[in-house]
Amino acid sequence: MQLVGIQLDIAWEDREANHAKVRGMLEAAPPKPGALVALPEMFASGFSMNIERIADDATRATERFLCDIAKRFGVTVIAGLAISGDKPAALAAGHTGPVAKATGLALNQAVIAGSDGSVLARYSKIHPYSPGKEAQHYRGANAIVTFKCSDFTVAPFVCYDLRFPEIFRAAMHRKAEVMVVIANWPSPRVEHWITLLRARAIENQSFVMGVNRCGNDPYLPYPGRSLIVAPNGSILADAGAEEKIITAEIEPATVRDYRRELPFLADAKTDLSRLFD
Fold first, then answer.
1. Distance from C-alpha of 13 to C-alpha of 39, rounded to nearest angstrom
2. How far apart are CA 231 and CA 199, in angstroms?
3. Rg of the chain over CA atoms, in angstroms?
4. pLDDT class for 179, splitting at 50, 70, 90?
5. What separation in angstroms does the CA of 155 have from each of 10, 32, 46, 168?
6. Could you report the per-residue pLDDT of 47-102, keeping only the tens digit for each?
7. What are the residue boundaries of the structural domains of the chain, listed by start?
8. How confident is the model over 95-115, as pLDDT tens digits?
9. Separation of alpha carbons 9 and 175, rounded Å
10. 2-267 is classed in which CATH architecture?
């Protein structure tokens, strides 16, 4: 299976411009049919707290865009968007976790669009970035999501989730072999981004693809550095600092053979409460 990460300089709160940019990048470098393509967190708006302006509304414009490009190119697409938390009906189709209650808070989601043009699944960010006041605008979820793509089981995550290894380990126990982190991860902490992506790959013996934005928003610079990491921690692709598409060809046998040859995951203590008795 081909992994494809699309690193872009997101136009601030400009849905149409970002849709056009992504479409143009894909047309210039089409992914292979059957590929898994990932776009950054909130790719259509940037990391904005302006819910009323950026949330996917009743027209579902960004969700429909993702389904359209997935069908056009014959791929599975993971991409981030904001969706209003007071519209639970808009979340029901394809949602494999709990639907938000009418709290007035939005959800920061990874939407997974399939090659048939449908929404396969939704993952809502478990850890809103509280130091940046995201938790005042976006509601944290409580469900890990996995889905099948080609012969792999895939688990999506969003940005700040990367700092919490326990949810990645839980995904591994659900047979995840590819973990995808979509992000707006800022430049001051780029070394954390790189180190944590490699750590999640090593400790879970999984492929990890981290897809970040580059450029600037009104508040912060972003380093790019989208990566594809092998289960042993080696970097298979690095986007650097500019707009770029990265790719890597992966095989299920790579994960499965590596886990069998170095079977430390079988020794993991999964009931941590017993350590504190």
1. 16
2. 10
3. 17
4. very high
5. 24, 21, 22, 8
6. 999 998 999 776 799 999 999 999 999 999 999 999 987 554 345 434 444 444 44
7. 2-267
8. 444 444 445 689 999 999 999
9. 33
10. 4-Layer Sandwich (3.60)
